[in-house]
Amino acid sequence: MDCSPLTLVGHYVTLEPLTRAHLPDIQRAAADGELWKLFFTSVPSPESTEQWIKTALDMQQQQTAVVFVIRENQTGHIVGSTRYFKMEPQNKRLEIGHTWYSKSVQRTGINTECKLLLLTHAFEVFGCIAVEFRTDHFNHRSQAAIERLGAKRDGLLRNHIIMPDGRIRDTVVYSILEHEWQGVKKNLQYMQKKYAS
């Protein structure tokens, strides 16, 4: 399982390595919907974007994450970010998270293709036996999106994280296992075709 920066190319989006040069693109993408105002997400505000990028790149340098910006192929615009993290080569598992999208591309099929690209690489290149997703108990939209992918709910971690504003977050945990991947892949491909039609 390699933590080196990589690029994943799809029909609608390209996931490319985050760099410091993406600062204005990330600020623009997050401003579409003022996403940092959603208390249950970790989207950077204009003032915190530089630190957000530094933290993400530090994770990558420590070989615990692969961080992407999401570029919409048709427009060339950066419309969000996602990453592999909590990468455990010895256990053949990782988490996909820190994912967010500009409001204008939410519910467009971009999330479906991003997850298809990320999961295909995780299971078929990295050789993962499990891929995990976690989200805030209050982020019902995220939970519904994860369930639409075909992930199964593993449980709830109570009093899991102390958030920057002091709120103590309960975290919902989902996963997809290696033997479930082919079914999940077919489902994602089917969903992708529906968006295309």
Characterise this structure.
With 197 residues, the chain is an alpha+beta fold. The protein has a single domain (8-196), classed as Gcn5-related N-acetyltransferase (GNAT) (Aminopeptidase, 3-Layer(aba) Sandwich), CATH 3.40.630.30. The protein has 5 helices and 8 strands, in the order E-E-H-H-E-E-E-H-E-H-E-E-H. It has helices at residues 23-31, 49-61, 110-124, 140-149, 181-196, and strands at residues 8-9, 13-17, 65-72, 78-88, 93-101, 130-136, 152-162, 168-177. An 8-stranded mixed beta sheet has the order 1-2-3-4-5-6-8-7, with helices on both faces. The longest helix is centred in the C-terminal third of the chain and has 16 residues, at 181-196. The termini are far apart.
Q: Name the CATH class.
A: Alpha Beta
Radius of gyration: 16 Å
Order of strands side by side in the largest beta sheet?
A: 1-2-3-4-5-6-8-7
Taking pLDDT < 50 over at least 5 consecutive residues as the criterion, the unreliable ranges are none
* Overall outline: globular
Tell me about the largest β-sheet: 8 strands, mixed
Helix percent band? 25-40%
Q: Architecture, CATH level 2?
A: 3-Layer(aba) Sandwich
Q: In CATH, what is the homologous superfamily?
A: Gcn5-related N-acetyltransferase (GNAT)
Strand content: 25-35%
The whole-number mean of residue pLDDT values reads: 92
CATH topology: Aminopeptidase
Total domain units: 1
* Class by alpha and beta content: alpha+beta
What is the chains' assembly state? single chain
Number of separate helices: 5
Element pattern in H and E: EEHHEEEHEHEEH
How far the N terminus sits from the C terminus, by CA atoms, comes to 36 Å
